[in-house]
Amino acid sequence: MKNPFAEKTIYQIYLRSFYDSNQDGIGDIPGITAKLDYIEQLGVDMIWINPFYPSPQNDNGYDISNYTDIDPRFGTMQDFELLVAESSARNIGIMIDLVLNHTSTEHDWFQKALSGDPFYRDFYYFRQGKKDGSPPTNWESKFGGSAWEKLPDSDDYYLHLFDVTQADLNWENPHVREALYDVVRFWMEKGVTGFRLDVLNLISKPDKLEDDFIGDGRRFYTDGPKIHSYLKELHAETFGQSNLITVGEMSSTTIQNSIKYSNPLEKEVSMVFHFHHLKVDYKNGEKWRLDNVRFDELKDIFHTWQVAMADGNGWDALFFNNHDQPRALGRFTSDKKEYHYKAATMLAATIHLMRGTPYIYMGEEIGMINPRFSSIEKYNDIESINHYQLLQEEGFSEKETIKIIQERSRDNSRIPMQWDSTPQAGFTKGESQYPISESKSWINVKESLKQPNSIFAFYQKLIKLRKAMPVIQNGSYQPALLNEENVIAYVREDEQHALLAIHSYSPSDKTITIPENFQNGDILVSNVARNQLTAETQLEAYETLTICITK
Ligand code: TEU
Ligand code: CA
């Protein structure tokens, strides 16, 4: 079945770090409008903007205190309307980020609940502690510590799967669902054409909340009991009536559920973000324990998901980077200068030639790298700061703790966009509120746009190719060259073309045998000086090579 978003590419903007238009050192909405030429030049179809609603910013806007307004630090509603108009004039859609699983504890609803209003009390999960006064269940917050916070002067606790200032909403309550659908409709009327829905598969909690003796509680509420019926209702009540693009962020989900979420016949969401491929350097599933990348696992996850999602008519959001992840460049490859172009473009090709909708996280298109700050003062993310404490309590030295934070912190990708090599990286004419990376001296937009063979130009080419070639959009997917170590390869095929895409993650040269049927094909994508194919091909370090046969 032809998928309407198959030819599109989406660009993610972490608003506060993208471009500051008014010199207060914080990126803002007019800052996006000011850079639309750049975004248009890249060739993307839609911009996903991280949350910009009024918020105490304890979790950088994922703690919303008012769903239908703009936080003054990011601009005004007029600024937002102008952005929608200016981008739609360029055929670029706006996807906003809605957090429907929880609100800030500063939200009116929570405040009214606290003051004892029973109507709003039922908007959240308030529960009595156990007899001994301990929390209602032993569930853990994803940011560390208990998932329950006790109210002062009461036996009651409220549930927060994330920060203590992010209270989980009670989707069981029809008034909650109706209030949230109103929010979605409000933004649709503003001309928004896409929604990224935060931790969407956590909204359905079980009827009975009980201790988890084998885990942190997630098995009870991940892809929870009523999730599919809630999503069908959300779809029917809001975006289902128009042709919007919706992507659900599905934490720790399964393939079977992801197919159901994204198969168009199910009428839930257009596509899913899932994260298994970004846990292949966790130790025993733990983010805050370092391990080497298990490359075979990475390869296996990509192949398994691509094949199964195609079989089940599901649809993937394709990505390596976002605001929650350290950059893939430097994580799955070297990020040294000598490999910079090849590693960045090889990672791009891996994702962009798969079946699904590719997402580019701001700065990825110029090969931005992790700053790996060495002092805790430079870190600002609540998750990193919590774990700085927790890891030391668990016995890690300060030095070991910093090493883990350097590798894992979400701040790695949240640093300001590097527009040029000046002291503020061209991000602001004032003084940046967030630390600027030294790498701006050699990795920046100005430099990229000067060079004909830049990483940026390679991304432009991938975006254009997807639009031009139905085989990239909707072709079948078969794993290939499975026995070649450090290589991810696959065949995409339709009635007109067959593509063999080969991506080498090896830091040194590597000889492979090109399958016979592809030996006479054309080179469609390459990141090295290669213009001829031979049966035995010596791939360079981090080479990507796609061969095309026209039938
Ligand atoms: O992320 C959900 C989520 O599961 C990640 O936070 C993930 O658990 C974490 O990064 C891995 O350690 C979404 C948003 O993308 C994130 O920025 C928010 O902090 C979170 O929800 C809470 O709203
Ligand atoms: Ca600003």
TrEMBL record:
Origin: domain of life: Bacteria
Organism ancestry: Bacteria, Bacillati, Bacillota, Bacilli, Bacillales
PANTHER family the record matches: ALPHA-AMYLASE FAMILY MEMBER (PTHR10357), TREHALOSE-6-PHOSPHATE HYDROLASE (PTHR10357:SF217)
A Pfam family hit: Alpha-amylase
Record's keyword terms, sorted: Glycosidase, Hydrolase
Top enzyme category: hydrolase
Family: Belongs to the glycosyl hydrolase 13 family.
Protein name (record): Alpha,alpha-phosphotrehalase
One MF term in the entry's GO annotations: alpha-amylase activity
